[in-house]
Design goal:
Layout lengths: L1 E2 L6 E5 L2 E4 H21 L8 H26 L2 H6 L14 H19 L3 H8 L4 H14 L13 E3 L2 E3 L2 H20 L8 H17 L19 H23 L10
Parallel strand pairs: 1-4
Antiparallel strand pairs: 2-3, 4-5
C-alpha cells in the first residue's frame, strides 16, 4: 500500500492561466492518436493520406470534447445542468463521459466519412486502435485529480486516501482501457482485417474491461447502484457495446468483406 499525496491538479500556472494535468492528458491522447494514425497511413497499400489523418484527428477532437461533456451532463450531471446551465461549457472543472465521447466521435467520423466519400465503417475500423492511449492518459489524469476512486479494500496495492485503503480503479482502467486495449487492437490491425472486425473488437474489449472495473469502482454519488445493489450506470452503458461488438465481429467473419482501408491487387 502507498499513501495518496493529493498532488496539485494544476501542472503549470501562467498568471491567470492554469494548465491542468487532466487537460494535458487529453493533449497526450490526441498527439498519440495522430502519430499512430500517421504511421498506419504510411504503410504500403494504405488508402489513407497524411492530410486524411490530420482532418480525422481534428474531427475526433471536436467529437470527443463536445460528446464527452454533453454525455456526462446527460448521464451523471443532470441536476447540475438544470441548476447551472452554463456549467456545460466549463470543461476544466471536470466531468467527461466516455460513452458520451464515443457517441460524439462516431458522429464526427460519420461527417468525416461523408465529406471524404469513404465508407463509414472503414473510417471506424481505421480509427479503432487510435484512442486507447488517450483513454489510459485520461485515467491517469483522474488519478492525479483524486477522483473516481474504487471501493475500500485490503489488497497489497491499495492506495490509502485520507486514511482509507481504496482500489485505485483509475489505474485499473488506465491499464485495461489504455495499455491492454491498445496492444490488442494495434496487434490485430497490423494485418488487413475484414470490414467491421476492428470496430467490433474495440467495442467488445472496451465494454468488457469497463464492465469488470465497475465492480470495484464507487458509483457516482448522484446515481448510485441502479439495479440489484450492484449494477452501475457504467455497466448499463457498457452492455450495448459488448453486444454490438460481438455481433459486429460475427458479421465480419461471416461476410468476409474486404476493407476499403487497403488497396486490393
Amino acid at each position: 500500500m502507498f499513501v495518496y499525496s493529493h498532488p496539485d491538479p494544476v501542472a503549470l500556472s501562467l498568471g491567470p492561466l492554469h494548465v491542468r494535468w487532466y487537460g494535458l492528458m487529453y493533449l497526450v491522447g490526441f498527439l498519440a492518436a495522430w502519430w499512430l494514425a500517421r504511421r498506419r497511413a504510411a504503410r504500403p497499400g494504405s488508402t489513407w493520406t497524411p492530410i486524411d489523418v490530420d482532418d480525422l484527428i481534428f474531427y475526433c477532437a471536436v467529437g470527443v470534447i463536445f460528446g464527452g461533456r454533453f454525455g456526462w451532463m446527460l448521464f451523471y450531471g443532470t441536476e447540475r445542468l438544470l441548476t447551472d446551465p452554463l456549467s456545460i461549457i466549463r470543461i476544466w472543472e471536470g466531468g467527461m463521459s466516455f460513452h458520451g465521447g464515443l457517441v460524439g466521435v462516431l458522429l464526427a467520423l460519420g461527417v468525416f466519412a461523408s465529406k471524404r466519400g469513404r465508407t463509414i465503417v472503414d473510417v471506424f475500423d481505421f480509427a479503432a486502435p487510435l484512442p486507447a492511449i488517450g483513454f489510459g492518459a485520461g485515467r491517469i489524469g483522474n488519478f492525479i485529480n483524486g477522483e473516481l476512486w474504487g471501493k475500500p479494500t485490503d489488497v497489497p496495492w491499495a492506495v490509502v486516501v485520507d486514511g482509507t485503503p481504496l482500489h485505485p480503479s483509475q489505474l485499473y482502467e488506465a491499464t485495461l482501457e489504455g495499455l491492454v486495449l491498445f496492444l490488442i487492437l494495434w496487434w490485430f490491425t497490423l494485418q488487413p482485417r475484414f470490414r467491421w472486425a476492428p470496430s467490433g473488437l474495440f467495442l467488445l474489449c472496451y465494454g468488457v474491461f469497463r464492465f469488470l472495473v465497475e465492480f470495484v469502482r464507487v458509483p457516482d454519488e448522484n446515481r448510485g447502484y441502479l439495479l440489484f445493489d450492484w449494477v452501475t450506470m457504467g455497466q448499463i452503458l457498457s452492455l450495448p457495446m459488448i453486444v454490438a461488438g460481438a455481433v459486429m465481429l460475427a458479421y465480419a467473419y461471416r461476410t468476409r468483406e474486404s476493407s476499403g482501408n487497403y488497396r486490393t491487387t
